[in-house]
Amino acid sequence: MKKQVVFLMTDTTRKDMLGCYGNRNMITPNLDSLAEEGIRYENAYTCQPVCGPARSAIFTGMFPHSNGTVANGVPFGDNVKTVGQRLTDHGIQCGYIGKWHLDGGDYFGLGKCPEGWNADYWYDMKNYLEELSETDRVRSRRSGECFRPGFSEEFTYAHRCTDRAVRFLKQFRDEDFFLTVSYDEPHSPSLCPAPYNEMYKGFRFESSASFQDDLEDKPLLQRLWAGELLDAPGQQVSQPSEYLSLLLGCNSFVDHEIGRVLSLIRDILPEALVIFTSDHGDMLGAHRLFSKGPTAYKEAANIPLIIRGGEKGKVVHAPASHIDLVPTILDYFGIPIPKLLEGKSMLRQIYDAEVAVNQAVFTEFTRYEVDHDGFGGLQPMRAVTSERYKLVVNLLDKDEFYDLQHDPEELVNRIDDPACLDTIREYHGLLIRHMNDTRDPYRGYQWSLRTWNKGFVPSWENEGFTRQRENEEYEPRQLDYDTGLPMVNAVRSKYLYEMEGKI
């Protein structure tokens, strides 16, 4: 049997923007059907709720702090390999169609196919713009174009991506392949033709306590982010807007485009593994915040994830993470999972939804974008989330701890609650261990020197270990600084040789 994977991704789709996640006001019949045919994950998290860093983890299997893409506009290093490169080197055809956002260029990209992907199908947003006249380029960035006479589906990036995806699937239907279709939609300007452009006119989300959050016991960064909305009435925070109506309309439109791909898959590739997710969500007024940024709130970080190809109609509540997608894909193709990857294969869970791959998952933030002074600038954040609890350490600000069972809206920050201290310390231990295990370059005693972590004594040496990189599929084994010979243990005491009397 052929091994074939179709990876579908949108930009800025929240969980509650899909009907299958319980919001029946959302018109997403194609993704809802996909969920009925596969597994829907309730507690899947992005690795960083910003476009580029989120995608870097999805396509490399390494956290942003490991692959180098810690903000939009920062490319990962030449020695970081994508899943496309790894699969291509094993003779598997790889196509990437759509938004990339990982080459260090501007929002649209450089228009050049990276190694590991079929150049005949490479189509990032720069390629799309190059098809347009200067007048149409400007039109493609104006939300109001949706309402002008003659605006068509064929003009949109989503439609042109789908056309290419259909051609790829037909051409390689008899081969092993991995195809990514990465839609920019529903991200603003959220261009969508009729009837989608009017479908959600006047829509507002149902009243939620999160719109009333005064952020009084939350980090300062959140109050600054809220700005004028900090003191606004809750109904003003959640009021209808053209931005929201077009975002949701474009979300239904991209569901239509995804439906074109899914229809062909069902016709000619019924055994293909199909994965759908979004890079991150959008606060949309929850906690008086908009867009995405330095937060682990569910609206921005808890993303939709649907996988078809194993069990059908099941829901997984155990935590899941984008970091596990590359190991899963390699495992599906029978390729050994490299030591360098920082996630786990979900393949057993896909075939048996009762399997728990993770007890907790990790989310981070460093900064939003190199180009922008705003969005809080440098905001180092590391978070750990289980099905029950969420700990967020904001290095330069107040930390957060939520009991998701009793406080699903994440309103009550219990970081200073003595009754929670033992649990906070347990999750903090998981977080520090994760930062060490993944060689987080921002790790240090500061992440433990917190107001609630009384009795902690900082050390200049931190844990006192050397932790070298193991990327031996594409690099020679690194050398031990103290011997000049190939390292024996990648993780070792910094003072091993001194203790042994060898230096």
UniProtKB/TrEMBL annotation:
Gene3D superfamilies: Alkaline Phosphatase, subunit A. This is DUF4976 domain-containing protein. Pfam families: Sulfatase. Residues 4-335 form the Sulfatase N-terminal domain. One of its GO terms (cellular component) is cytoplasm. GO terms for molecular function: metal ion binding; sulfuric ester hydrolase activity. It comes from the Bacteria. Belongs to the sulfatase family. Keywords: Hydrolase, Metal-binding.
